Amino acid sequence: MLTLEEHAVLIMGLIFVFAYVANLVLKYIRVPNVVSFLLAGFVLSNFIFPEMVQEVELWFDYSESVALGLIGFAIGTELNFREIMGQSRRIALLLVAEAGGAFVLVYFGVLLFSGDPVFALILGGIATATAPAATVEVIRKTRAEGEMTTILQWLLAFDDLFAIFIVEAILAYLKVIVRGDFSVGEYFVSLGKEMGLAMVIGLSFGIVLDYIVEKVLKDQLEMMEFTLAVIIFTIGLASYLGTSEIITTMSIGMVVTNRGGDNYSEAKDLLEVIIAPIIAIFFVLVGARIGVSTLVAFPLISIVYLFSRSVGKYSGLYVGSTVLGMRKPIRNNLGLGLMAQGGVALGMASEVEEILGNSSSENYARIGHLVATAVVISTVFSEILGAVGTQLGLQRVGEVNKASPSVSTRQTHLHD
Question: pLDDT tier at 408 (50, 70, 90 boundaries)?
Fold first, then answer.
């Protein structure tokens, strides 16, 4: 019998081959590669290698950290402050609109379904977070470029920061309920550790990385290798210190793209060679976490949460973009790019379950378990919605295949 401990390399190879074969087959019916990877993981773990469902958690944690860290860096390199300062009002309004829409609809949807305001408040807060992985991967794979693509990348960059503020406040409230001794000071310490420390680490290493890449290294492959080394190290450091990995690497990306010089862009281009297989493994493992038995026992609250969150994100952005007078194609499709939810939401749900699990109240312990269950199950389907929605939206606004073909450029660099 195959086990991860004894045959890790063989199973890794099986994951890669199966994922890319599925992608090759399904792309002919225009299935996004993210969805292909999710389906490959589900089939692999349930019908070919059933033991994988129970043994996949450790691999998932590692791949999630590295994937989100690399995606955070890629998003950070798109945050040119000169452009953002001119768009600050637009970004702020859209951010409040999409997060607010998700929070309000999930809160009232869950409240009507369960009748429990605490349960509704928790899921409403978690609903504000958006996972960047599926959206960024679709943008990369379809070589999208244009107004909607740019807005999506800006919103993805700031969305999790906004969500962390909201959820940390809710967690503070939960700790008051459970322990009764949570202070405002403790809240700001927790928030500072989650966001402030991540930004300090990212900005510090970003300055060092930018200097070495721009002033010391001359070979493009060396730039890529050193950039990757710094990113991986800071991901590990952020994890060790208990702070946000994606905010850490996003801060690195912001530094290298705003300090001047253009060598970082060559390194970023070459990093796509590394990012692609890591993203593939990450989504295969997301799909592998869902067993057939889990789907059979699909709780109704997951459907309520998934539906109300999706409608809230879409309607919030539609209203926000209408107020801003944006073009009709953008208004109709922008919300399709923010359906996905993943790592940040899963982490928040896990923390909620831990806090409420320590309560002497059976009701709070039950709420904690229901929150975790609803978010974990809806995550897989929201990733599919996110990938399909993003690709559909970008196609409808005509931004697919507008970016320069970086693959051929990368091959030229390697051959030179």
Answer: very low
